[in-house]
Amino acid sequence: MKACPDCRNLMSESASFCMRCGWSDELQRLRVEVERLKFPRSEVRWFAERMETRLRVNDYTRQWKEKSFDYLLERLFEEAFELEKSGEEPGEAIDDAADVANFAMMIADNTRVALAEKETADER
Question: How many Å apart are CA 4 and CA 13, to the nearest integer?
């Protein structure tokens, strides 16, 4: 006998369906698939958290929405150079990689906003 993963009802070892709650192997497979599609990969979540941590360290500075594309691109290259130099130090490499990603995100965010504003202006 085995217990149903959802309701703990006892089922035979070969059972793939719980008569009590309706759990099934297929239902479990679908739940796993939905969760996989619903959230980014664990590596992406971890890195996004690292990016957010690095952004918070610099919250005292002016916001990126006020910065030009050229300035942000120049800073991205500077951070990429720091990343190249920090390859020997794992902790520094992670922080520098997050900094590079943050500048790329800032460029993408400003571009997204500019495109939305352009589309709104074009609709008028």
Answer: 10
